[in-house]
């Protein structure tokens, strides 16, 4: 298990196993293991699905890098 906190304060307890990554709690070190949760192949796909703050920040950084390439 590991804990993740996104830039907006969304807290997740994440389980990593052979099926991938799965959110098992909404607090640090708290495993409520909801078996209905989806498994994700990567931390990026998990954050892309669950964290609007991650998606926004990723888009902003990508736009800056693309703008720098045009100069």
From TrEMBL:
It comes from the Eukaryota. SUPFAM superfamilies: Hypothetical protein c14orf129, hspc210 (SSF103107). InterPro entries: GSKIP, GSKIP_dom, GSKIP_dom_sf. Belongs to the GSKIP family. This is Uncharacterized protein. GO terms for cellular component: cytoplasm. Transmembrane segments: none annotated. PANTHER family: GSK3B-INTERACTING PROTEIN (PTHR12490:SF4).
